[in-house]
Amino acid sequence: LTAAAPIAGKCGIYFAGTETSALPVGKKTGRLTLAAGGEDHLVFSSDKEAVYVALLPYPTEARFREKIPGDTYAEKITYWMNKCTAANTDGLPQILVSHLFTAGGITTEGEREISLGGAKAVDKKSFPDSAYTALGHLHKRQVVDLARNIIYSGSILQYSFDEVNVEKSVTIFDLEGGKCRSVRAVPLNAGRRLARISAASVGEADALLKEVSDRLVELTLRLTSPMSREENTALFASHPNIVSLRLDIASERRAVRERRSLGDAELFAKCYESKYGKEPDKELMELYLSLLEEGEA
After folding, report:
1. How far apart are CA 135 and CA 255, in angstroms?
2. First to last CA, the chain
3. Residue 102 above 80 pLDDT?
4. Rg (CA), the chain
5. What is the dihedral of CA 229, 231, 233, 238, to 10 degrees?
6. How far apart are CA 96 and CA 40, in angstroms?
7. pLDDT tens string 18-28
8. What is the DSSP string of 67-109?
9. Looking at the predicted structure, is the pLDDT value of residue 264 above 80?
């Protein structure tokens, strides 16, 4: 990700990884200067003030193999938090930026679980005192601790279809006198949105899809019988914005219910007949049932 740092920095956007030599330290962008950069922190300054940005990235398996103090997930996270804030020896206003899963956070279908060493959640009490704590990983905007300004701003796009009704935003705040003030969410209107559609026929689906032609769609079709190849081809040709198609076919549901009600002999007979076009003879049936009994024994 940091390969784009030299270009992004000219736009006032900073990608900070373990390699900070690519960052434009000492250069002014707009009203801000990147005054200093280290492995786990950045310092920005203006004509009147400065801010210390502590950085704790995604806790990968590789990082968990590092020889550092602590045996548990919480102990290791606490160590890294203390480490990334340790260089703030001048007592500058501090912002912590991290990619973590906080206990009590609300997930969506799009997140990758953080599960390391049997633990995967960070208690909000573990976060050091900062003017603002900007968290990533959870795609839905949520406030972890309003009093301490610990907030997930959420993803800037809808990444999974359970986010259809989730409004996206960025969080903006002011730093005045070392304090965080005027925290507000600014809605994002750009970017392609998602839609979930359910229809009882291909014709109904076609009409509904025309209403959301500007969105990426997950379509569920509740049919009495499978679609023909021609119907399938025509549907995707007319609506290239379908990214997921789910078929809920009544005949298949009935077949599943019927199979569940059959005994072992009946199931074997139906399977054999579907493959060979005739019923199994008595000797083969007895052999099959005896093998089942041996397996169960």
Report:
1. 48
2. 57
3. yes
4. 28
5. 180
6. 10
7. 666 667 778 78
8. --S-SSHHHHHHHHHHHHHTT-TT---EEEEEE--BTTPPP-T
9. yes
